[in-house]
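Order emerges. For instance:

***
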Amino acid sequence: MVCGGFVCTKNALSALNILYVLVSLLLIGVAAWGKWFGLVSSIRVVAGVIGVGTFLFVVAFVGLCGALKHHQVLLFFYMMILFLVFVVQFSVSCACLALNKDQQNHLLEVGWNKSEETQKDVEKTLDCCGFHYVNYNGTCAASCFHNTSSPSCNTCSDIIQQYAGEVLQFVGGIGLFFSFTEILGVWLAHKYRNLKDPRSNPGAFL
């Protein structure tokens, strides 16, 4: 059977959705692991990652069920949802790759000011204090701040900016890769919906 046939398309769509299931479980597991071991204290970050993982799992499950049963309605909704996800993810990925240094700094500062828990996580992980300046009369979760002899800490913006560009390039690249797998999934689902199951009654295809 050629690869454009019913069975090959079904297997390809099923394999793609199994990959999505594995990625979704990885996201949920990493978020739970980070929260359990105290690596991330912000409940918003953990909830956000788990929410994305759960959403991806549901979409992949719908696609997998639609592929295995050749269910027209499930495949239609899977196609529509996956296309919307593609549009959003492709746009975000392109934005990550196109941001200049000033825009990166602005977004980092906005994210920094939104959550005190995130600030503590960053200070503890990167061993830095404050975003633009260090307030030695305030509080800080970094170990350098609690050096009783002579506390000396770098600002978090200096450390984050060293890696922000590379991280955004990496995130943008990964996002682009998965966005193309999503448009592949849309194409496979559309093609699969219009293929007749050779094992079914010739008059049963709708």
Observations:
- DSSP finds six helices and no strands in the chain.
- The mean pLDDT is 82.
